[in-house]
Design a protein that fits this description.
alpha/beta, 51% helix, single chain, TIM Barrel, six-stranded parallel beta sheet
Length: 302
């Protein structure tokens, strides 16, 4: 009887551990292609998310991807054709604005651009078939929802989303509480992440939310690129990972950074210039930034 009881306890404990491992949010790291960042995610046992920027598969501002350029970029940044894991294509600009609904075009032009995105994704899968692929910021902010009444347009967007191996909406922080009330930022997350989870439920796709430990410069002239304080960043990550809709939560987050690029702009960008004013060891400073915000993320994820 005692042995049976011990065995039952062991089974329960194993079940709890298994359930925890299945439900724990996953952290993916999307860094720059520098050896110190590779060492950072490897030494901290973080899985990378490979990121190809627009310039690495699109020539200039073309509305078509370039096969040869993508092949060259894949060979440079993901040289092993058998590489597994996660990858994201970042294609912004005019074509993204059309697909997102920011720019209005005819149905014919819209369809052409959707088909181009699909063709691009399929070619990435062809080149590196063992990687799970998606597009950055897909689904886009609520513009997908606004277009739902136009069935042809919305159905075409769904065709694109169905091609993705996972959804990768972006949830960078636009404003601090002083510039714009915190309530605005939280409502932005709640509305758009809830909709992404709704789509994920319909399409049976995991959701990995893009996050960044700095304020997004696109809509924030004053604080763009400024480091977010750790308390605010922790609350931001926690809100994302605990948002639930249609019995789903985000599977994890993709933590992006461009610390090397920003360090290179410290003589031109006033925000970065002020940040680096008293920094004597640039390399150590960059590493400490990632270490600090990894600790913040781990305090939520683990």
């Amino acid at each position: 009887m005692k042995n049976k009881y011990s065995l039952l306890v062991l089974v329960i404990l194993l079940s709890i551990c298994t359930l925890k491992s299945q439900t724990a949010p996953k952290l993916l790291f999307s860094g720059e292609n520098y050896s110190w960042q590779t060492l950072f995610y490897q030494s901290n046992n973080i899985q990378p998310c490979y990121l190809l920027y627009q310039a690495q598969f699109v020539v200039d501002k073309s509305l078509n991807f370039d096969k040869k350029l993508m092949e060259k970029s894949m060979d440079k940044f993901i040289p092993d054709k058998n590489t597994t894991g996660y990858g994201v294509l970042d294609w912004e600009g005019n074509i993204f604005n059309i697909i997102a609904g920011y720019t209005t075009v005819t149905q014919k032009v819209f369809d052409e651009h959707i088909n181009e995105f699909i063709a691009t994704l399929r070619y990435a899968k062809f080149l590196r078939p063992n990687i799970k692929w998606s597009f950055y910021a897909m689904p886009t902010y609520v513009y997908f929802k606004y277009a739902e009444g136009k069935s042809k347009t919305f159905d075409k967007r769904l065709l694109l989303l169905r091609e993705l191996d996972f959804l990768a909406p972006s949830f960078y922080v636009f404003y601090d509480g002083k510039t714009v009330p915190d309530a605005f930022s939280t409502q932005l997350i709640d509305a758009n992440l809830s909709f992404a989870l709704e789509l994920a439920s319909k399409l049976n796709k995991p959701v990995y939310a893009f996050v960044w430990h700095r304020y997004c410069p696109g809509t924030n002239i004053i604080n763009g690129n400024k480091i977010i304080d750790v308390v605010t960043f922790k609350a931001h990550i926690s809100r994302i990972l605990n948002t639930t809709n249609f019995n789903r939560k985000p599977t994890g987050i993709i933590w992006w950074n461009c610390e090397d690029f920003l360090a290179g702009t410290r003589t031109r960008d006033s925000v970065i210039m002020a940040e680096y004013k008293n920094v004597t060891d640039v390399e150590l400073y960059k590493k400490n930034i990632l270490k600090t915000y990894l600790d913040v993320i781990n305090s939520v994820v683990k």
